[in-house]
Structures are given as C-alpha cells and as structure tokens.
Amino acid sequence: MRATTIHAPFDMRVEDVPDPVIQDPRDVVLRVLRACVCGSDLWAYRGESARQPGQRIGHEFLGVVEEAGDGVRGFRRGDLVVAPFVWSDGTCAYCAEGLQTSCPRGGFWGSVGSDGGQGEAVRVPFADGTLVKLPADAASDDRLLTALLALSDVLGTGHHAALGAGVRPGSAVAVVGDGAVGLCGVLAAKRLGAERIIALGRHTARTDIARAFGATDVVAERGEAAEAAVRELTGGQGVHGVIEAVGTEQSMRTAVAVARDGGSIGYVGVPHGSGTGLDLSVMFDRNIALRGGVAPVRAYIPELLPDVLDGTVDPSPVFDLTVGLDGVPGGYKAMDERTALKVLVKP
C-alpha cells in the first residue's frame, strides 16, 4: 500500500510500505476513506519535533473495516468507523474514567512502529476500545463524512478546551487561536451555551468561519492591544472562560490577561516556544483556573456524534483544501505557508 512518510524537515513523501496485517486478535485492518493534516503535524514537518527518517505520520482518519481479528467483538468487515487520534484498550482504569489518552497500552498513530493515518490503510490495535461505529449511509454523503472526520481530533479537542474553560450557558468566552482547533472551540462554546464568544484572529477567511460557527466578536490585534480590546468588549472585566488553542508563550500570556477574576483557561494548544508564559502569582491572586491538555476525544465522540449526524454541529468548513494521497506533501506546504487552514486527504 501507499502511505505518507517523513524523512527530514520539509521532506514528506508518499511511498510504498508493507500492507497492514492482523498482529493480535484484537486488531482490525481499516481502509482509510478520509484523513487530514493536523496543525500539530507541522511541528514535525518544520523539524521542531523529532522524527525518524521514514516514520509514518497522520493521526486523524476514518474508514471501513477490511478485516477483524478473532478477538474483536464490536466490529466486522464493512463497518464504517472513526478512529480517535490515540488507540486505547478500553479496559484500564484510565479508560474507565474517560481519560483514554493515558491508557498504559495506548499510543499515538504515526509513532515509531505504528501506522499513520495519512495512507491507504491502518492496523488498529484494541479495536473494541478505540473505534466508534458510524452509520453506514454516511459513507455516501461527502459533506457528512468530512464533518465526521473532525470527531477524530479537532472537534473533540475544541470541546475539551471549552470544558476546561468552564463554558456554561450565558458565559462570555474568548478563543485564542484561529486554526482548526480554535474554530472548533468556537463551535463547542456555542454548543455549550456561551452568550458571547470573542474570536482572536487576524485572517479574515478564518474569522469569517468563526462568525459562522457562532463568534459574536472578532479581535484582530495581538498582545496588549488584543487584551485591551477584549477588556473593552467585556466592560473591563474580561471573560469567564478562555480557550487557548495555540501553545506559545504569547498566547498563554494573552489567555491569562483576558480572563476575568475567577475565570478559567482551557488549554489544548500543544506547548512550544520559550516557556509557558504563566505567572502563578497572578493566577493565584485572581483565582484563575487552568485545565486542559491532551484531549481524550474517544470519551467525547458518543456525546458529539448525534449533533454532527443531525447537522446541529457542522465542523466541515475547517477543511478548506482537498488533496489525494499524492498531494499530501503539497498540503503540508500549504498549511505551513498558511494558504490552507486544514487539508482533507482522500486516499
């Protein structure tokens, strides 16, 4: 089969690799129908996250079960399924608590020795604990299939950030970051009943999506100017909750500055840069809470799936460039140059 591999910074290739096979009775082999490029993939692309030459890549995908091991109980050949961005056994204490990202036997797609989602097929360990079945007729609806793909990562990650930010009916929320996760954070905040949603972003194409997703205000400034703008919009107090979807020192400083006293920050931006930007004494004095981290999207899919299926929540507009498998290297380049928001891959 063919799959995307990374060999060095800015050196993405689509190559012939061995076909996945059942290695454990709990495995399935999945034929990929939709995959995509994540903003976090760009850190490997730029050389800021180490990868071995030839390592697979990609962690967001859905597809059809081609083969199931003898120990798989919940799936059979032909089932349409979505895979969260980590696999998990579904039986450990962490999985039982809804924190599948901490499963001792779990792992991330594209890690050394595992398949990546940006390919024609994937071996899925612990299928019963990992995969979620989708309605078979969704396979014939291109828009819906694209929306369902967002359940593998960005929609659940935005939801995780909104929960961490304490979003509730009537609250005021700021979203720091206009990438796909930040935009899905807008969707999540709207779904949870936020009355005012302030999107911080400078790219009109992206902030237009934010408005369509439910943002009531857009702040295009950065740094102190952005902080002042949010304060002005909220009568000088700041917001009840902040969704931080970037991961830089500046973005975290902005999140702390725009939170009101007693507010919460839900952070899901993968940390990178020269520090956290956190002044614990400021957070202590102002009673600001910080929650977040790697989103256990497997725990959220059952809750979010019905709203995606009936169209109440439609994250499909975050995918603004579609490529075939051969176009994946160009898709990385487009996202790196910010000419694309999020690249959809149709193998």
Task: Describe this protein with a few key phrases.
alpha/beta, 347 residues, globular, 30% helix, six-stranded parallel sheet, 12 helices, 18 strands, seven-stranded mixed sheet
Structure in words:
The protein has 347 residues and is an alpha/beta fold. The protein contains twelve helices and 18 strands. Strand 14, helix 9 (249-258) and strand 15 form a beta-alpha-beta unit. It is globular.
Summarize the structure.
This protein has 347 residues and is an alpha/beta fold. Helices cover 30% and strands 25% of the residues.
Structural class determined from secondary elements: alpha/beta
Low-confidence stretches: none
The whole-number mean of residue pLDDT values reads: 96
Could you tell me the number of beta strands?
18
Multimeric organization: single chain
Proportion of beta-strand residues: 15-25%
Reading the helices and strands in chain order gives EEEHEEEEHEEHEHHEHEHEHEHEHEHEHE
Determine the fraction of residues in helical runs and give it as a percent range.
25-40%
Give the SSE map.
Elements: E1 2-8, E2 11-16, E3 28-36, H1 41-45, E4 55-56, E5 61-68, E6 80-83, E7 86-87, H2 93-96, E8 107-108, E9 121-124, H3 127-130, E10 132-133, H4 142-149, H5 154-164, E11 172-176, H6 180-191, E12 196-200, H7 204-213, E13 217-219, H8 223-233, E14 239-244, H9 249-258, E15 259-267, H10 280-286, E16 289-292, H11 297-309, E17 321-324, H12 328-336, E18 343-346
Parallel strand pairs: 11-12, 11-14, 12-13, 14-15, 15-16, 17-18
Antiparallel strand pairs: 1-2, 1-4, 3-5, 3-9, 3-18, 5-6, 6-10, 7-8
Helix pairs in contact: 5-6, 5-11, 6-7, 8-9
